[in-house]
Amino acid sequence: MMGVPVGVGPKWGATSQRSTSGSLSPSTLVPATRTLAFTMSQFSYNELSSATGGFSKLNLLGQGGFGYVYKGLLTNGQEVAVKSLKSGSKQGEREFQAEVEIISRVHHRHLVSLVGYCVADSQRVLVYEYVPNKTLNFHLHGLGCPAMKWETRIRIALGSAKGLAYLHEDCDPRIIHRDIKSSNILLDDNFDAKVADFGLAKLVSGDDTHISTRVMGTFGYLAPEYASSGKLTEKSDVFSFGVMLLELLTGKKPIDSTNDCMDDSLVEWAGPLLAKALEDRNYNELVDPRLEGNYDLNQMARMVSTTAASIRHSAKRRPKMSQIVRALEGDMSLDAINDLLKPQRVGSTLSVNQIPDSPNSIVDDTRAYNDDMRKFIEKVKSSSQEHERT
Questions:
Q1: For residue 67, what pLDDT is reported?
Q2: How many whole angstroms separate alpha carbon 247 and alpha carbon 233?
Q3: For residue 85, what pLDDT is reported?
Q4: According to the annotation, is 231 in a ligand binding site?
Q5: What is the C-alpha to C-alpha distance for residues 386 and 380, in angstroms, rounded to an integer?
Q6: pLDDT at 376
Q7: What pLDDT digit, counting tens, does each position of 169-197 carry?
Q8: Cα angle 138-143-147, degrees, rounded to a multiple of 5
Q9: pLDDT of residue 383
Q10: Nearest partner of 235 among 158, 312, 181, judged by Cα
Q11: How confident is the model at residue 244, as a pLDDT?
Q12: What is the C-alpha separation between 187 and 2, in angstroms, rounded?
């Protein structure tokens, strides 16, 4: 399945006119004060129907609660991924607006590009660049897929980290993705990563912390602060990214009911093994056995330390995405990376005036996470049952 972004948007006027200007029409789609990072086309429904062979099943790349994704070929010869969204969904309408507004603001080699869109009567269609090599989730967990080489895993981790760092720290206003997971990382033929699916993304400014009353993200990747309070910040994305790093390290799914050695989440299962690996630098129990020990020890030490720092229970103790990029690139010493795992005193700077941390605190963090998630799942179930009764 193509992990192309998921979404739909607000009630825009129906149109089938083609536009190739640098701004969207109607103008309410994107604030007039913003300049789009690239030219985006407005397609007619007939154009996209022709591009996909009448939305033929032969061109179907994937499907989900949002609708269907097809491979298409535009008249100019460009291959695209065409997402036809289910009509009549309020959430879908919100997500459509979010995708068009947010992706039109950004352009980065590690973010999927939006080529254009279509609004025709009740039809909502998004057109993306076609990324040919499926998703990280497919290559890690797909049946019959060969074991991904260590060099490829590092390449994907670094590329997706750069894309997220751009959203968090180089965009104004900042962008929180809110649904980072392996199925939302698209791969090209060189296994370069592109972050996709901006249907749940949120623009934030200043010290704004978004509090969501709707379920955002995917179980197994949700940050503990969201489960306990509904708060979402850039550090929530960092936690989800840390879970994805765990997938790359271990080859395991975030939640896998078929795995006897994982009673609960990957985060809780991996906690003691991360702590042990940080202590003795023996990675055999933690690392995907399909790698057969074929990995660079220094890179592995960086990845393990970065992962442990990213999934800390306290959002404030997680690194920024730019720090993660530096760590994975080798521009930060291993001691400095491990310092990210230590609670800092007020007013301290990295690597100084820090209180020693113990491996047990990592285990405690992961246990606390699982407790939070159990409570959250019960709350969601209770809310759903209450909604059904009303």
A1: 84
A2: 22
A3: 87
A4: no
A5: 10
A6: 66
A7: 999 889 999 999 999 999 999 999 999 98
A8: 70
A9: 56
A10: 312
A11: 98
A12: 10
DSSP assignment, residue 293?
T
Q: Where are the beta strands (DSSP E) in 140-278?
A: 174-176, 185-187, 193-195, 202-204, 210-211, 231-232
- Cα–Cα distance, 81 to 69 (Å, whole number): 7
Token readout for 184 is 């939302």
- Distance CA(357)–CA(305), nearest Å, equals 13
Q: Hey, how many other C-beta atoms are within 10 angstroms of the C-beta on 208?
A: 12
Length of the chain: 390
- Cα 329–chain centre separation: 20
| Residue 63, strand partner residues | 68
| Dist CA 50 CA 48 (whole Å) | 5
- For residue 161, which of 302, 316, 333, 370 has the smallest C-alpha distance? 302
Q: Which residues contact 285 (CB under 8 A, 6 or more apart)?
A: 273, 276, 277
Confirm if 212 and 113 have CB atoms less than 8 A apart. Answer: no
Taken in order of first residue, the domains within the chain and their CATH numbers are 27-129 (3.30.200.20), 136-385 (1.10.510.10)
Q: Which region, left, alpha or beta, applies to residue 347 given φ > 0 means left and ψ of -120 to 50 means alpha? A: left
Give CA–CA dist 299/172, Å, rounded: 32
Please choose, from the candidates 235, 199, 203, the residue with its C-alpha nearest in 3D space to the C-alpha of residue 214.
199
Q: Give the separation between CA 110 and CA 192, rounded to whole angstroms.
A: 8
**Catalytic choice (121, 170, 179, 288):** 179
With beta carbons less than 8 A apart as the criterion, state whether 295 and 288 touch.
no
Tracing tokens 């100084």 back to the chain, one arrives at 352
C-beta of residue 160 within 8 angstroms of C-beta of residue 193 = yes
Q: Do the Cβ atoms of 61 and 1 come closer than 8 Å? A: yes
Give the pLDDT confidence score for residue 142 in this predicted structure.
Answer: 94
Q: Which residues of the chain have pLDDT under 50?
A: 1-38, 211-213, 344-356, 387
CA distance 105 to 170: 12
DSSP assignment string, 323-335: HHHHHHHT-S-HH
Element (H, E) at 387: helix 359-389
Could you confirm whether 339 is annotated as catalytic? no
